[in-house]
Amino acid sequence: MFFFKQKTAYEISACLVGSEMCIRDREGVSLDALELPEARFADTALRRCGLTGAHLEKGAFTRVRFEGVRFSGASLAKSFFTDVSFVRCDLSNTDLHGCSMTRVLFEDCRLTGADFGEAALSDALFTGCACGYAQFSRAQLRDTRFERCDCAGAAFHELRWRALTFEVCSLMAAELFKTPLEGMDLTTCQIDGLIVDPPSLRGAVVTAVQACGLAKLLGLIIR
Description:
With 223 residues, this protein is mainly beta. The protein has helices spanning 9-15, 198-201, 208-214, and strands spanning 26-27, 40-47, 60-67, 80-87, 100-107, 120-127, 140-147, 160-167. The chain has three helices and eight strands, in the order αββββββββαα. The radius of gyration is 19 Å and the shape is elongated.
């Protein structure tokens, strides 16, 4: 187990033993471009730190709080997150493909272009996040809630979901091909330009105004 104070990414990489890290509530640490696959992070908080372009694939994160951390362009693919919160973090274009996330919070985060493809999320909350053009295709979302999020242009192809909620979100030009929407309430969302195949629309809950906008997908002419 390794403890560090204000070390550079190179110094940390050179000193790690068994790819295990214990970071005790560090602030302002620069770990940009760190390469540390299969690392373990537990019971810690990182604040205003840099992990831009870092490689942390197949890591394990347990009871970790990230606050104001810059992950943009980092790879955390196939990692495990349990009881983790991201607050005011920049995860734009971050690779989270195939991750497993349980009891996670994304609050006021930038997730533009982030890749959650084939990830498995359970008991997750996204609140006040910028999720434009994020990729959730073939993900599994269980007990997951998006509230006050901008998901314009995001891809939700072939989702497998249960208890998925969008509350006061923008889904303008979002793509939901082959994602059954039966029982999903979209009445508080902006769905102009929603891209979805007609069979997937069956059973979705929308307002009368939204239904008029979706009618053209069904080949209907409203006069």
